[in-house]
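Hi support team,

I submitted a single chain yesterday and got back a structure, but I'm not sure I'm reading the token output correctly. Could someone confirm the output below corresponds to the sequence I sent? I've pasted both exactly as they appear in my results page.

Thanks,
R.
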Amino acid sequence: MQVLIIGGTGLISRGIVKHLRARGAEVTVFNRAQREDTLPPDVKRIRGDRNQFNEFERTMLAARFDVVIDMVCFNSEQAAAVVGAFSGRCQQFIFCSTVCTYGVKAPPGVLIDESFPQEPISEYGRNKVACERIFREMHKLGRFNVTIMRPSHTYGPGAPLIDNLEADAVAWDRIDRGRPVLCAGDGLGLWQSTHRDDVGKLFAYAALNPKTYGQEYNATRDEVVTWRDYYRHVADALGKPAQLAFMPAAWIVRHDPKRFGLLHEITQFHGAYNSSKARRDVPEFKCEVDLTRGAGETFTDMRRRNAWRDSTTDALYQSMMDEAIATGGEPVPA
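Hi R., thanks for writing in. Yes, this is the structure output for that exact sequence:
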């Protein structure tokens, strides 16, 4: 099986490569070679910029793949270039979309499945919906078989670990130093976190699986936790207890809307999804990495890359904590 990954060195891509190689696939990655490349030497590399659309299409027309997995398609222009490059030239196209396409509403049963209406509130989510529509149309026209994946929060070595407030969280250093951290609301919002290797397994075993053709899948583990649970499990990886001070999301965002954009657009809302359809059609998709173990792996990698954030220099966070405590937000165990 000849597989091309557009991207290939990002977080989920590394999990995909791991499981494709376990299947015996020959893997090629296409990217700008601007990120740390820890892929095995037998993975083929093609260097290029997908946003140079004419050159991208010419490069792709010089090769042929059974499966193309696009991890870095973020707008309709990039999607159109994919159509030009691969229409009629691959058996299956797997698109990495996002659960952000659903928006922030929750169904009566809380868990969102693939039939839930797509009403994104972010530009990122709206652009992914536009890409999905283009690829679904190509599937209907028989240009290639399309499979759409919608991961939620995916984590692991190669990226920082989010907290409830921000993508590159200073909270983990605070917990490691025995300091309290902030959490929005009452900490009972629902959340799902899936390790990159487990998400990668779904992509890898969906490849050339006819059951996945023309289908859309949530790509999350079964376990749903509250934010209190999340902090507690992650703190266990540090061997320290987490102390949480609860404050309204709007209060936190108001202090720095750009820094706390993750909270504003995503994490103040429930993020709980049903992936039973994926497990039905891809039985190999079994999530095996628990949050404490995965957080430990992530922290080790962050320290290796000198990407660990030092909380002692974060005056804004400390001033927010002082204000929260002064107004009655006394920290409590997670």
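A quick pointer for reading it: The chain has two domains: 2-155+194-219, 171-192+222-273+290-333. Let us know if anything else looks off.

Best,
Support desk
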